[in-house]
Amino acid sequence: MSTVSFTQMRDGTRADYDLLAANERRYVAELPDRLLAALADLDHGLGGYPISRLQHSLQSATRAERDGADIDWVVAALVHDIGDTLAPENHSQLAAAVLRPYVREEVTWVVQMHGVFQQHYFGKHTGQDPDAREAYRGHRWFESCERFCERWDQASFDPGYPTESLSHFEPMVREVFARPSFTIGDFTST
Q1: Among 77, 109, 124, 140, which one is most buried in terms of CB atoms within 10 A?
Q2: What is the pLDDT of the chain when averaged over all its residues?
């Protein structure tokens, strides 16, 4: 495998950066494979629930799809907890960062904020503020996040719910993450 000629980025040549760009294009094209593997790994994650984190993710996506949600919402429901393994204290932000280049801003904001909104259901039992989401009331996507949590997230811990498999959602993951991503100049914070 070819490598660049520099040991400091400022010393790189056009050929070095062309090589890196070609490598990055190939690596980015493999993102759906890595995401699907990361989702499969959720089957062995945090315990204590009646179903695995993978089954929760699949159930959330299944509910979104059965509600008639578009592909952005279905994939977001599938990957919304993908950060649980690497960022358990801020899993929502990690999942949103993964989605941000590929889905519309509303979907990214909802995934980023779902952890705060979910406190509504358990905060009174854990010493967290169940009304923390109220700080965002009036935000243009407040109701979208409220709906995401109510219909797809908090309701998806049912071992008896008929849930689609990961292979069912694979084509959607591949479609969303094959989209052209934003560029640095296109990024707007939410």
Answers
A1: 77
A2: 94
